[in-house]
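Project outcomes to date are best conveyed with an example. Our students and postdoctoral researchers have been running inverse folding experiments weekly, and each run begins with a structure described purely in C-alpha cells. The record below, which covers 267 residues, was selected by the lab manager from last quarter's runs and is presented without edits.
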C-alpha cells in the first residue's frame, strides 16, 4: 500500500482501467521488447511493502496495475513518482493536490491537473520559460501520445551504437525532444497558437462562456483552452495582469481547460 501523506480529495470514482488497458499494454510492452533501455515501473499491486509514491485516488485502478515506464533514467511516463518539488517548472503551481507530475526533464514538466473534487482533467506542459501548454485533453490521450513517442525513442536507441553515460544522455535528449518537443516546441502536428489572458480586476465581469466558474480570491486573469489544440500556449509571465510575475499562481477550472492566474501576494 502507498504511504499517502497528501490530503487528496476522494469524492470522484476512480477512472476505470478498461479504456486505458490497450495503451497501458502498449507502454508495458516497450520494457519487454527493449529491456536494456526501458524499465517497467510496477503498479502498487506488484510492490512488496510500503511504497513512497502518493497517487491521487482517482487513478487508483490504473496505478494498481501500472506505475509507468522509464527510459534509462530520463523518464517517460510516471504515475507513481515518490518526490515532489516546488522549484523550476513547479514554481507557479499551487498545492500539491492540484496536479500529478507525469514527466520531468531538466527544466520542464508535464502534469495531470486535479480538480478541487479530486477528478482528473487535462494534461499540461510547463516550458522552461514557465509558459503553459495544453498537452492533451485527458490522461488517455497523453498516454497514447507518449506511447507512440517512446516507441520511436526505443527504436532510435536500438539503432544507436552508444553505451553507458553517452547512451543515457542520448536517451534524455530523445525523450525530451520526441515526447515533450511536439507540445512545447511546435514540432510534429502541435498547434502553437498563443492563448490570450483575460485580465480581471475588482468588479470585472466574466464573459458569458466563463460566467459561473467558481473563481478563487485574488484572481487577476483567466485563459480559456477549451477550444484549443495540443500545444496551445499561455505566456503566464508575459500576461498583462496585476501583480508581480513571480507572485502568480495557477489554478484550474472546468477540467483543467480554463487556467486561472491568481496573485499569490493577495491570497
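After processing, the design step wrote out the following sequence:
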Amino acid at each position: 500500500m502507498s504511504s499517502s501523506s497528501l490530503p487528496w480529495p476522494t469524492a470522484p470514482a476512480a477512472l476505470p482501467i478498461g479504456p486505458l488497458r490497450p495503451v497501458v499494454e502498449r507502454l508495458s510492452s516497450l520494457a519487454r521488447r527493449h529491456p536494456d533501455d526501458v524499465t517497467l515501473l510496477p503498479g502498487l499491486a506488484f510492490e512488496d511493502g510500503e511504497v513512497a509514491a502518493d497517487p491521487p485516488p482517482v487513478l487508483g485502478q490504473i496505478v494498481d496495475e501500472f506505475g509507468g515506464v522509464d527510459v534509462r533514467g530520463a523518464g517517460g511516463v510516471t504515475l507513481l513518482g515518490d518526490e515532489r518539488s516546488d522549484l523550476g517548472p513547479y514554481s507557479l503551481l499551487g498545492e500539491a493536490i492540484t496536479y500529478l507530475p507525469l514527466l520531468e526533464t531538466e527544466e520542464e514538466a508535464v502534469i495531470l491537473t486535479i480538480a478541487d473534487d479530486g477528478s482528473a482533467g487535462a494534461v499540461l506542459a510547463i516550458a522552461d520559460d514557465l509558459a503553459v501548454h495544453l498537452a492533451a485533453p485527458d490522461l488517455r490521450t497523453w498516454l497514447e501520445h507518449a506511447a507512440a513517442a517512446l516507441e520511436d525513442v526505443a527504436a532510435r536507441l536500438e539503432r544507436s551504437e552508444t553505451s553507458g553515460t553517452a547512451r543515457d544522455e542520448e536517451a534524455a535528449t530523445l525523450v525530451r525532444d520526441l515526447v515533450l518537443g511536439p507540445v512545447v516546441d511546435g514540432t510534429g502536428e502541435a498547434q502553437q497558437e498563443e492563448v490570450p489572458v483575460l485580465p480581471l480586476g475588482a468588479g470585472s465581469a466574466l464573459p458569458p462562456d466563463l460566467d459561473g466558474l467558481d473563481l478563487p480570491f485574488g484572481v487577476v486573469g483567466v485563459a480559456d483552452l477549451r477550444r484549443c489544440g495540443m500545444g496551445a500556449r499561455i505566456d503566464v509571465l508575459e500576461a498583462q495582469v496585476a501583480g508581480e510575475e513571480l507572485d502568480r499562481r495557477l489554478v484550474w477550472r472546468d477540467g483543467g481547460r480554463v487556467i486561472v492566474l491568481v496573485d499569490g501576494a493577495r491570497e
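Helices lie at 21-33, 60-65, 139-159, 164-184. The chain has two domains: 18-184, 198-266. The training component of this project remains on track.
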